[in-house]
Write a structure and sequence with these properties.
The protein has 200 residues and is mainly α. It is built from 13 helices and no strands. The chain has 2 domains: 42 residues, no CATH class; 152 residues, Leucine-rich Repeat Variant, CATH 1.25.10.10. Helix 4 packs antiparallel against helix 5, helix 6 runs parallel beside helix 9 and helix 8 packs parallel to helix 11. Belongs to the FES1 family.
Length: 200
Amino acid sequence: MEQLLQWAINNTDQEQLRKDAEAIKRGELKPDPSKFDPKVIEAILGKDDATRMKEAVDCISDPKDTVENKVIALDNLEMLIEGIDNAMNLENMKLWPAIIAQLNNENAEIRKGVAWVCGTAVQNNPKAQQALLDNNGLEPLLNLLSNSAEDKEVRAKAQYAVSGLIKHFPEGLAQFQEKGGFDALADIVRNSQGKLKACS
């Protein structure tokens, strides 16, 4: 970055720059944004959140990309959607279907990361809750939650997502009940009690 700055200084007409700065101070000249190269601005400021979210979803959807890259992309996406506006933008950007599809990924790390993203997006966010429900996200989450053969960390993240989806959201709770969510929870409790008895 320092080298880029030094190059810019060395290749700028200092006298003209000084005159322009004085004219701007006096209000006689305004900077022309059309002369700014978007690629240079992106290199200096970084990509905007929407671009980073889209790239993360593209990565997890690409069958050729590595599991390691997908896990990193999911971590980045989860951090981005901690902001309520970004979580709501998942629907505006039509990203939910691609995210939900990865709940069926063959890799447990990916399923866990996607469930985590779903859970974070819907926390205290009625619009995101509605969007996840409208995009049929509840059923695959319930499948992860109720599958006793599923990785326990995946099930924990699915539980996190489901609890966030139904909390203070009557429509989500109604669908949870309709799709057998309470039965799934009862099975989890029964299985847990059975394991505890076996250990004692």
